[in-house]
Amino acid sequence: MSRILLINTNIVKAPYPVPPLGLCLLAERLATRREVRVFDGTFAGNDGLVEAVRSFAPDYVGLGIRNIDDMNLAAPSEYLDDIERLFVRPLRDATRATVILGGSGFSLFAEPLLRRFQVEWGVVGEADAALPALLDRLDAGQDADDLAGVVRLQHDTVVFGASVCSAGVLDVPFSRIERWIDFTPYRRLGAYPVQTRRGCAHGCTYCTYPAVEGRAYRLRPVQAIVDEIEDIGKRLPGATIEFVDSTFNDPPGHAESICAEIVRRGLKLRLRTMGINPGGITDELFTLMKAAGFAQIDCTPDSASPRVIRAMGKNFAPEALTRAAGLIARHRMPTTWFFLFGGPDEDLETVRETFAFIDQYVRPEDLVLMGAGLRVYPRTGLHRRALREGIVRPDDPLVVPAFYVSPAVGRERMLAILREAARTRPNCLPPGESTPDARMLKEAVEMRVREGLDEPMFVTLLRLRRAWPRFAGIGGPAPIA
Question: Which residues are CB-contacts of 347 (< 8 A; sequence separation ≥ 6)?
Answer without folding.
Answer: 406, 408, 409
